Amino acid sequence: MTISNIVLSWLYLVPLIPSVIVSIFVLYHLLINRALRIALNNHIIILLLSSGLIESVTDGVWYISWYRNGTVLSSTPAFCTIWSIIDSALYVSIHIQMAWASIERHILIFNPNWFGSRRKCFFFHYLPPVVCILYPIIFYFIMFMIPCDVPLNYRGKHCGRYSCISNLYGVSLWDSIGNYILPPFIIVIFSVALFVRVLYSRYRVRRQIEWRNYRKLTLQLLPLSILYTALQLPPMIMYAAYSLGLNYSIGFSYYVDTVSLTFWVILFTPFACVVSLPNLKAKCKKVIFFWRRNRAVVPQLELMARPNLRQMRAAVAPVE
Predict the structure, then answer these.
(1) Domain of 63: which CATH number?
(2) Considering the domain boundaries, does residue 87 fall inside one?
(3) SS3 state at 227
């Protein structure tokens, strides 16, 4: 049974507000603390949270408006093009970033020497996230800016602009496999492989310090991997099956519902990241009880004339 649009609008709106708050909270603590800010393992997390925050306050709000009103927020060709580009580019970019994060975590744990020099660090750490951001933006900007014969439908999602991609067989095939199907499979495969490798290393390497470092780096990504596996992988498996010839009458209602809820991956990512935040309990108390001030008691010292050495000796009785 397909979920109604009004229910979907509430399913987007209810987690949207706390998601934005938690995103700002986590980003603030990751950026304000220099040790957390310069840590290589936190860079992709900061990028994911920043991209998700932009996606939530733009695309998320536009989806809620479309679900509730049945029409796009602004019935203009410019808005339709902007919505199509932002929704597709940011959504795919976040999934590719997460796919790269699951790969990079193997390098951080088992091949840290790949980041041993500035040149290596640039090619293996800074360049891939830049590609993850620029590739979807360039791809969808070109796809949605080229002339398209499909008329705009202001009552349809993205005004029906995505049909411009669907009507091009080669582009549609690459878009479905390379942009939507491949990243979730990479996330699941490399996340499971990382968990197995870390468990194996725990028994092979008996050094408690090394295992503690492995555990921290693994657990930071584990909640995100579970989130993508639970919410993103099932509809993508159905999407791949339909692309390979599965009849749409099989499980199509389930597919439509799960595809509509894949945006939850974006909304729940901040909650998955906040779990791995260091000293989370203390940070939450500081935010919740922000009005409380530590009232330091300043002792009131009496002004006294400094006694000379003879006076001190005379005042202290000798101990016999």
Answers:
(1) 1.20.1070.10
(2) yes
(3) helix
Please tell me the distance from the alpha carbon of residue 182 to that of residue 173, in angstroms, as a whole number. 12
Q: Minimal CA–CA distance to 225: which of 257, 259, 268, 178?
A: 268
Tokens of 52: 């998700």
Q: How many Cα neighbours within 13 Å face the side chain of 122?
A: 3
- Give residue-wise pLDDT tens across range 217-275: 777 788 888 888 888 888 888 887 887 778 888 888 888 888 888 899 999 999 988 87
Range of the domain at 201: 5-315
Residue 286 within a domain: yes
Other C-beta atoms closer than 10 Å to the C-beta of 207 total 10
Is 288 part of any domain? yes
Q: What is the pLDDT of residues 286-298, one digit of tens each?
A: 655 555 555 444 4
Total of domains in the chain: 1
Closest CA to 272 of 317, 210, 229, 215: 229
pTM score over 0.90: no
320 within some domain: no
In contact, 51 and 93? CB cutoff 8 Å: yes
SS (H, E, C) 262-318: HHHHHHHHHHHHHCCCCCHHHHHHHHHCCCCCCCCCCCCCCCCCCCCHHHHHHHCCC
